[in-house]
Amino acid sequence: MKISAFILSVFFMIFSAPVQAQEGYAGSWEMGLQKPASPLKAQIDEFHSLLLYIVIAIVVVVTLLLLYAIIKFRRRKNVEPATFAHNTLIEVLWTILPIVILIVIAIPSFKLLYFEDRIPDPDLTIKVTGYQWYWGYEYSDYDGLEFLSYMVPENEINESEGQRRLLSTDNPVVVPVGENIQIGITSADVIHAFAIPAVGIKRDAVPGRLNQSWVRFDREGTYFGQCSEICGTGHAYMPIEFKVVSREEFDTWVASKGGTLKPLEPVAAEEVMQEEIQEDLQDDNLGNNPEGDVENSETPAPDFEENKLKNPNVEEENVSNPGK
User: Fold this and answer.
1) Which of 9, 39, 49, 239 has the highest count of CB atoms within 10 angstroms of its CB?
2) Each residue of 264-275: pLDDT tens digit?
3) Around Cβ 281, how many Cβ atoms within 10 Å?
4) Which H or E run includes 277?
5) Among candidates 101, 126, 67, which has minimal Cα distance to 259?
6) Is 283 helix (H, G, I), strand (E, B) or coil?
7) How many CA atoms lie within 13 A of 199 on its CB side?
8) How far apart are CA 55 and CA 276, in angstroms?
């Protein structure tokens, strides 16, 4: 009975997965990766499929070789064991074949890494800051457009509006479709990780450091993510929600939020975000040490040599009484 139930569950899981596949988040009984919503995610999926085929081929070949050796060289058929110890052809093959496999894997791997690391000219720049346990977003191209985003409590979820438990937020990030978006990621307290599986983004948010990524959404919709680095008791309650709309809808949303486009300046967005992080760090240092650093203090540090001249017995007392 248990075996039959297991077989039925596997059957329904396999054949119902394509029907129940969701957009922007993992659905119930869904198999495989989420449907790609960006060029980066599409290339990641292609590379994943290539590795899967290579692994399957290796497993099949090794299994057949094991079965061949077990059957052909079984004890009943080979009463007298063979006396050879080496085979030059086999040794050459098992040295060359792994090298060829690694080259086949390395070439598309390097291409993918370059495509992921190369940030094209951005049409929009967003600075993401991780907090315990919520996210902050700042649109660097606009004045007055920044907000905090918290998870919608379970008792307030409205599924008719497309909200999802542990995934929906009270302030989703709105971005235009088909445009290059540069994302700067940092943290204000502990290490977090900003991850949206449908677009292939996963970057650590480290205090005092600015990690960067980019994305270009291929189609409109709502895409969810979560913090992917254990950051405390509220780690599971740090969802990410992106709403992808047309450029016209995006401009309308920006106007409704009171944001105004900044004038063009010959300063890279990365430099602007780095300056903002340094300012935040300076503010934190001043808050932790309101009297300022010792180096900048007007009170000079005690001079040991001067005290020694005034009291020549200081060094002798310290030597004779090391406990002081």
Assistant:
1) 239
2) 554 455 565 566
3) 12
4) helix 269-288
5) 126
6) helix
7) 31
8) 46
Q: What is the pTM of this model?
A: 0.69
Tokens standing for residue 139: 């649109």
Which residues make Cβ contacts (< 8 Å) with residue 160, sequence separation at least 6? none
Residue 309: pLDDT band (50, 70, 90) is very low
Secondary structure of residue 243 in the 3-state scheme: strand
Give the span between the Cα atoms of 197 and 226, in whole angstroms. 9
Residue 190 burial by CB count (10 A; 0-12/13-18/19+): exposed, middle or buried? middle
Distance of CA 69 to the CA centre of its chain: 45
Helix (H, G, I), strand (E, B) or coil at 155: helix
pLDDT tens profile 90-131? 889 889 999 999 999 999 999 999 998 888 888 999 999 999
Least Cα distance to 181 among 226, 128, 222 occurs for 128
